[in-house]
Hints:
Elements: E1 3-8, H1 13-24, E2 31-37, E3 43-49, H2 52-61, E4 69-75, E5 90-92, E6 97-105, H3 108-117, H4 127-141, H5 146-154, E7 159-167, E8 174-179, E9 184-187, E10 192-195, E11 207-210, E12 215-219, E13 224-228, E14 237-240, H6 256-262, H7 264-272, E15 276-277, E16 280-281, H8 291-294, E17 298-303, H9 305-322, E18 326-330, H10 331-334, E19 345-351, H11 357-368, E20 372-377, H12 383-386, E21 390-393, H13 406-425, H14 431-454, H15 456-465, E22 471-476, H16 480-495, E23 498-503, E24 520-524, H17 532-546, E25 551-557, E26 569-573, H18 581-599
Parallel strand pairs: 17-18, 17-19, 19-20, 20-21, 22-23, 22-24, 24-25, 25-26
Antiparallel strand pairs: 1-4, 1-10, 2-3, 2-4, 5-6, 6-7, 7-8, 8-12, 9-10, 9-11, 11-14, 12-13, 15-16
Helix pairs in contact: 3-4, 4-5, 7-13, 7-14, 9-13, 9-16, 14-18, 15-18, 16-18
The structure holds 5-amino-5-deoxy-1-O-phosphono-D-mannitol.
Amino acid sequence: MCGIVGYVGPRASQDILVSGLARLEYRGYDSAGIAVIDESGSLGMRKRAGKLSALREALAAEPIGAGTTGIGHTRWATHGGPTDENAHPHLADDDRLAVIHNGIIENFADLRRELAADGVTFRSETDTEVAAALLARAYRANGGDLVGAFRAVVHRLDGAFTLLATHEDHPGLVVGARRNSPLVIGLGEGENFLGSDVAAFVEHTRHALAIGQDEIVAITPDAVSVIDFDGNPVEPAPFEVSWDASAADKGGWSSFMAKEVSEEPEAVANTVRGRIRDGRIVIPELDGLDELFTGIERVVILACGTAYYSGLVGKYAIERWARIPVDVELAHEFRYRDPIVGASTLVVSISQSGETMDTLMAVKEAARLGAKTLSICNTQGATIPRESDAIVYTHAGPEVAVASTKAFVAQITALYLLALHVGRVREALSTDDAAEAVVQLEELPEKIQWILDNEQERIEQLAHWMADTRSVLFLGRHVGFPIALEGALKLKEISYIHAEGFAAGELKHGPIALIEPGQPVFVVVPSPRGNATMHAKVISNIEEIRARGARIIAIAEQGDTAVLPSADEMLRIPLASPLFEPILAVVPLHIFAMGLATAKGLDVDQPRNLAKSVTVE
Length: 617
Ligand code: M6R
């Protein structure tokens, strides 16, 4: 939540900051602001409630000047509503110090009382202004040393924070600190950048440095220095960003979500690429790490939201191919229930952003308890992979729309690769299963593309007709069940329609009472070739709800004629082995949610109340 950008260099920083914020707007879009210092040391600041466009208008009406040092912020509100006053930056030290912040300072009320007793008056309701006032006080106490002020202040703050500050006394310097909140460095030629993630500066440089937990960074045009909170020098880890700025642009699509759904075939293909050698799954990142998988008795998957649903699908594959029991848990539930994990547990976290605070904290708790940790992540240099013993990257490319789509199919793909790898290492995977899985994985991108080419228009038409629908249900069995959950989440998230996903077998234990004439129900129908019994059971479930007036939209494989008489609408997917069906069946549901939100005239990329990266607990 909240996007942060910092710049020092020879160029006018206003445009660099605003274009960085545009790429970070997915992290929060309640308000935005920038502060810029010019070479004479004069600080200008503009901030506005609302989306970045409101700040752009304010800057067009009253530009901030040609200052070459600056910080910028796009906000997802925590303390205090989305108003101009609560927008960042916040000023202190007679408006000579500007501060921006991502995270939550948990002891801010105590600190605010302490500062108020000291005579400080506040202009906002935010925890950030408290940090700004503390920094100003420490800055004066440290004789005008901004890094020293940070060192003094970080020890007083509880909770999660990335803080950036710039001061009129120091044109050409931006200082930042991070604890449990993301911050990366972009290295330019005669200029340097800071950002919540690399999207903030990727149009200027792809050379980056990762800042570790509890570290303070100072950037000038020619130098970067990093110390830990105790003042010891730190050598930050360098990495190269593997995608360029165009990958994070809309590229002619009506929305980022439309672009990202269209990239689902590529997301799967890129995640598989380089990981099949001579017909065998080989994950180079896991070379030499066999002991992570041999000594374990159990796998625990931790994730939130859509990533959690990919974990639910992954459970079937890991249990099938690696023959290890798997539990899948919501990360925020795991941490606070005194979990039983230890050295014989492999904890697999899944996160597109790699910054989800709930997941990060759960991974840390698992590591503290002695578990081995592996991260499936889409974002290079992110915190969760850095906190893990091993990483398997999904190569879906940058995902900007708040609703996760291409990352979801890439996550399932990565989980399948992992399951096959672990199955081989543990000698649990049969040669036939391994060979079949490789073929299926390689065929997936083409099959997803077939759905986009042949079914997208019809699904969008259906969504258009259903624009006034007030409630939609989703049913699935086995691997189709998490897909039903994902279909419902996507619809809720971007179209604000009530939607629920159920295991089809659970219907008669309660949810069937919801069915009334005309109720639309999407049903993920398993292949009759894979499991005839399960297929027959799902057809029976369909008949049970049809008899009560439900309108059935079936997602079924091409040629499944048995489902035809029971379905009001039929969305076709290509033939695949049962375990691979979910990666196909979810595509129509992503298209449908997007189509319905679009038909309602909603912003599919930036749905209300949400942010892409949830970096607060
Ligand atoms: O970055 P992460 O994968 O850790 O994010 C987890 C969830 O917040 C995320 O999947 C969320 O549910 C999406 N907005 C769903 O579309």
